[in-house]
């Protein structure tokens, strides 16, 4: 029983990390119709900016509040990068999907190479602040605090994104702008500002995932963003490309499959099982495994 509880907690923590990465990807694609292959770059920026702040800035090291400040710094760095990307590269390419893919794929390859040139290819040890040291007892099992932190943050981000997409003026403007940009512009609404805001929010979610991924894995690497982006795409496809709720359900599902398959079979079989689920969804349920549920909830 204790093993199952521990696997469930670990799976929820990993699922929370997947959701943070995939939610921004789903938001940008679902609301803006932009397939951003450079999304993992925001995660890398967030991870390395948080690591740099933790080891270089006296006020961002050691204590729990210091880590919060470092994570805020990393998230802000990724958000700024996402905003600049939308303003200077993506904005001229709206409606030109082939060019979007080529440019973002190029950026996804260039940034890890740049990070590797500056800090090297070896994994860098991520500082563990007082905030996440220790465990929390759950059903007699000691659950690491970093897993609990990931779950709480992901739940808060899910609630905030649902409110933004379905209850705020900017969320409605973006949805209408994707459907008929000319009509929305004719009403005197600047769709471009709303698009920039959505891209910044998506980048913030990814960079926040980067800031917390160091806690989960214990290290940061130049290719960490690319690796997590692969699973983020799988989560978005399984959950439905236009559903944040479906994205959350799919993230937990993918993480649980990985954890249980890797533990009860052989290492690596969890990834194969996830790919098998992805193939099944693509062949049988166009629009995502959770499409019907997500349409009712989101």
From TrEMBL:
Pfam families: BPD_transp_2 (PF02653). It is found in: Cell membrane. The keyword Transmembrane applies. InterPro entries: ABC_transp_permease (IPR001851), BCAA_transport_permease (IPR052157). The chain crosses the membrane at residues 6-29, 41-61, 67-89, 101-121, 148-165, 194-217, 229-256, 263-283. Its main location: membrane. Keywords: Amino-acid transport, Cell membrane, Membrane, Transmembrane, Transmembrane helix, Transport. It is a multi-pass membrane protein. Belongs to the binding-protein-dependent transport system permease family. LivHM subfamily. This is Branched-chain amino acid ABC transporter permease. It comes from Salinactinospora qingdaonensis.
């Amino acid at each position: 029983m204790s093993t199952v509880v521990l696997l469930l907690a670990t799976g929820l923590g990993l699922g929370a990390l997947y959701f943070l990465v995939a939610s921004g990807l789903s938001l940008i694609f679902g609301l803006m119709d932009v397939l951003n292959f450079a999304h993992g770059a925001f995660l890398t920026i967030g991870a390395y900016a948080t690591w740099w702040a933790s080891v270089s800035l006296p006020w961002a090291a050691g204590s729990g509040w210091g880590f919060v400040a470092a994570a805020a710094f990393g998230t802000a760095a990724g958000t700024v990068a996402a905003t600049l990307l939308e303003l200077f590269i993506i904005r001229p390419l709206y409606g030109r999907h082939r060019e979007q893919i080529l440019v973002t794929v190029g950026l996804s390859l260039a940034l890890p190479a740049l990070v590797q040139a500056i800090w090297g290819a070896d994994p860098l040890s991520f500082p563990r602040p007082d905030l996440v040291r220790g465990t929390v007892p759950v059903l007699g099992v000691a659950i690491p605090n970093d897993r609990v932190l990931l779950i709480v943050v992901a739940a808060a981000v899910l609630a905030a994104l649902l409110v933004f997409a379905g209850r705020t003026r900017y969320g409605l403007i973006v949805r209408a702008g994707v459907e008929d940009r000319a009509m929305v512009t004719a009403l005197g609404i600047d769709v471009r500002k709303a698009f920039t805001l959505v891209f910044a929010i998506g980048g913030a979610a990814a960079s926040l995932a980067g800031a917390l991924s160091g806690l989960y894995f214990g290290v940061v690497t130049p290719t960490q963003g690319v690796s997590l982006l692969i699973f983020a795409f799988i989560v978005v496809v399984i959950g439905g490309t236009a559903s944040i709720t479906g994205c959350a359900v799919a993230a937990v599902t993918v993480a649980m499959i990985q954890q249980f398959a890797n533990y009860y079979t052989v290492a690596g079989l969890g990834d194969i099982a996830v790919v098998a689920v992805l193939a099944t969804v693509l062949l049988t349920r166009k629009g995502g495994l959770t499409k019907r549920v997500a349409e009712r909830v989101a």
